[in-house]
Design a protein that fits this description.
CATH architecture of the largest domain: 2-Layer Sandwich
Number of domains: 2
InterPro entries: Diguanylate_Cyclase, GGDEF_dom, Nucleotide_cyclase, PAS-like_dom_sf, Rev_trsase/Diguanyl_cyclase
Largest sheet: 5 strands, antiparallel
Protein name: diguanylate cyclase
CATH superfamily of the largest domain: Reverse transcriptase/Diguanylate cyclase domain
Radius of gyration: 33 Å
Oligomer: single chain
Strand content: 15-25%
Helix content: 40-55%
Bound molecules: guanosine-5'-triphosphate
EC number: 2.7.7.65
Order of helices and strands: HEEHHHHEEEHHEHHEEHEEEHE
Enzyme class: transferase
Shape: elongated
Structural class: alpha+beta
Cofactor: Mg(2+)
Number of helices: 11
């Protein structure tokens, strides 16, 4: 009678392990597999009979043995469970994604729980590894993260030119100002403005003016260094922050921009547009009380360049 009960119990335990939508693996002290449920069989193509009493590490070389042992040993010794989420380690078993067509992921992201299986004497000679398929969750989290990154990028750039917008540029400028106050250096700023831009708009139309702004932004980004921070400060006004660059060296860049613009011709519809720019340079000075004082100096230099005849560079 007891035998019949035991067989019935084994039967429903087997059904339970087979129908459950998580992986169940029981290993002994040597990490030899004792239980391998249908989920594990389906995803690994290894039947329980083929893996029983075999080393988990020999069967799955992708498992980082020292890492898993470090995680699992406290489960044996302290008898307390351990959880590993996909953000810490994307997977334990490298299984293909369940829905490779609809899921952008090539593999199954997994959360893992390892808990002790104590015998009647209280000793833990086996542990159970539970594997949860969290691919959908991981993929949608990653999509949200990517979207957030893209939104953050978009919030920093100017829509017309793709270079930094005023808000973000000013943030960087203020940070550079504070860095120079702490550690006085030779950072400089250039303020640049298109000459008689109103006339370009009036002569060729506003879309042509937009194209001029776009091409000028590209030119500025192309000629400046990667460490320089270029921004569109206003309509046809640009700012370039040059960390650790003294104004004599900035003069070289400013003149290069001025000369390149002078030679540039922009074809827009049937028009050939040429134009010039004026530039003002200001080097950081410890006397500046706040970052806007620094920019005001560049603006004053720009004003001098304008009143001095335009198409020129002035150092504050
Ligand atoms: N196409 C276009 N025009 C713009 C944009 N933003 C501002 N503007 C125009 O830029 C012109 C700026 O004119 P002003 O400030 O008088 O300066 P300017 O004609 O360049 O003259 P100076 O700076 O003194 O050489 C105005 O006509 C604005 O309408 C923009 O995004 N696209």
């Amino acid at each position: 009678m007891q035998d019949m009960k035991d067989i019935a119990e084994m039967h429903w335990k087997h059904d339970l392990l087979s129908s459950i939508e998580v992986g169940i693996v029981v290993v002994d002290r040597e990490y030899h597999v004792q239980v391998w449920n249908l989920f594990m069989e389906n995803h690994s193509n290894i039947a329980p009979g083929m893996i029983r009493d075999k080393s988990l590490f020999a069967s799955f070389p992708e498992i980082d043995e020292s890492w898993l042992r470090a995680k699992a040993e406290p489960v044996f010794s302290m008898k307390s469970p351990v959880f590993v989420i996909w953000e810490q380690r994307p997977y334990l078993f490298r299984f293909g994604a369940n829905r490779p067509i609809t899921s952008p992921s090539q593999f199954m992201y997994q959360n893992i729980t390892i808990f002790p299986l104590a015998s009647l004497s209280g000793r833990v000679d086996q542990i159970c590894i539970v594997v949860y398929d969290v691919t959908d969750q991981a993929v949608s989290r990653q999509a949200v993260d990517e979207l957030n990154e893209e939104l953050q990028r978009l919030s920093r750039v100017d829509g017309l030119t793709g270079i930094f917008n005023r808000h973000y540029w000013e943030e960087q400028f203020s940070r550079e100002f504070k860095r120079n106050v702490r550690n006085p250096g030779h950072s400089s700023v250039i303020m640049l403005d298109i000459d008689h831009f109103k006339k370009i708009n009036d002569t060729y139309g506003h879309p042509a003016g937009d194209e001029v702004i776009r091409q000028l932004a590209k030119l500025i980004s192309d000629v400046s260094r990667e460490t320089d921070i270029c921004g569109r400060y206003g309509g046809e006004e640009f700012t370039i922050l040059l960390p650790d660059t003294a104004s004599e060296n900035v003069m070289v860049l400013a003149q290069r921009i001025r000369q390149t613009v002078e030679k540039l011709t922009i074809e827009y519809e049937q028009h050939i547009i040429s134009f010039t720019v004026s530039l003002g340079i200001a080097q950081f000075d410890a006397a500046f009380e706040q970052h806007m004082h620094w920019l005001e100096h560049a603006d004053k230099a720009l004003y001098k360049a304008k009143t001095g005849g335009r198409n020129q560079v002035v150092i504050a």
